[in-house]
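Dear support,

Our group has been running a series of protein-ligand predictions, and this particular one with pyridoxal-5'-phosphate is the one our PI (initials K.S.) wants archived with full inputs and outputs. We had some confusion internally about which version of the output was final, so please treat the block below as the authoritative record. The input we submitted was:
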Amino acid sequence: MTVVDLRSDTLTAPTSGMRAAMMDAPVGDDVYDEDPTVRALEARVAALLGHEAGLFTATGSLANQLGIALHVAPGSEVLCDARAHIARAELGAHAALHGVTMRTWVTNDGVADASQITNLIEPDAGPFLVSTSCVALENTHNFGGGTIQPLPGLQRVSRICGDLGVARHLDGARLWNAHVATGVPLDVYGRLFDTVSVCLSKGLGAPVGSVLVGSREAIGRARVLRKRLGAGWRQAGILAAAGLYALDHHIGRLADDHAAAEAFAAAVEERAPRSVKDPETNIVLVSAEKMKAAKLVALAADRGVRLSAVGPKLVRAVTHLDVTVEDCARAGAIVGEILAGR
Ligand SMILES: *Cc1c(COP(=O)(O)O)cnc(C)c1O
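Confirmed final output from the archive:
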């Protein structure tokens, strides 16, 4: 039985071309800021996103932690979606490590609503209430189902924050997917925020790494914070080379992942109507109304399809570089049959 693993787009293995690029990478000591491949990656991602400087990090969680710590002093708050990765999936790091508190807004699909943010934001709350230092958005929205934040909404939130002197952070782990799906240039997204994190190890298929971008001054401070956390690294150019290779070869092909998500969703929908929403990018949320999510995950695994439960009745499938459109159509048919009781 060939297994179709749709648990995450982090599961991809580096391609042979990527491995060759890693082998040949010129390297140096990055704590001394002397690794030419790391420097090239940081400069390239910063330029792509319309920012001055970049910092290569081991994970997206680390890039988010650094980005938010730059803006939020201990005891003040970041506002974000209740299902944001920073709120749900970073193990409380922002509070545990940097004294950051959070308040959240609630959405159906992760798409931010500027009026909710206007109601929450309070940059100068006085001596009794917590003051807002930062608003963090996520694009695409992971637990919202790979949803794209429409550009006008992002522009509004950016303007509201800018007018009030509140910092803006974008968790752009899958910003590449939003860019490919909409055609909005990366720097148009990037310039709306003070800092942006992007992942190289999701759809882009690198084995390791994220980049945080911002002003030269901000990234200088982030470099110090990273070292303080013990996350300075040495000849990291071996890993940065995979990121550069991914930028050269794997951005455009994200459209294939989006087509694979469509094929998966269509195959489920054909057999179990109204159990999926039409996907916007590479994530499909399947609602398992008549059985528990864990049960659907287990039954699908028995038939060679790996998924993850993201709620009591909600299952997530993520398409990526290591699965084809045909694999995903077949996987969707299996999931649809299980939901239909066949
Ligand atoms: C995957 C992900 C991250 C970073 O995850 P790491 O596993 O720490 O690299 C950040 N934000 C979102 C929305 C993600 O999906």
